[in-house]
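Predict structure. Input: Type 1 glutamine amidotransferase domain-containing protein, 154 residues.
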Amino acid sequence: MTKRILSVVSNVSHYADPSEPTGLWLSELTHAYDVFAQAGYQQTLVSPKGGLSPLEPRSLKFPSYDNNTKLSDGSLLVAGRRLTGFSWSEEILARVDKLVPYNVEAQMKQRGARYTKGLIPFGSHVVVDGRLVTGQNPGSAKATAKNVVAVLGK
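Output follows.
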């Protein structure tokens, strides 16, 4: 049986202010892609709107959650789950806190998630809660992918 990975990448090309570009942080995709390829997974890349995924200009020289995903019983996917994501302190240090549409850290806590973050901003931090695997930031991409492979191998 073929092992498969579906990677969803961003279609967002700018913040609310069109003069502020954003997009896919390239290493988040390439590091994970490499880990999955080495583990023998067939990979498919998709985007929410289909079509192109613009690159984050700063990735050549910020993650997003669908924080309203619900399970079949109507509860939020993140409620009561241990997870991570880009921290508010990282948004401030990256000077995009006034550009991002919401505070991931606060939103996750507000929705009942058990959010954690690494001690050092921009360092690798991965949280595994059952089959939910989350990475804090682009620096976590490789470790997150390795954890996905480990979880899928169980």
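Strands lie at 4-8, 42-46, 82-83, 114-115, 126-129, 132-135.
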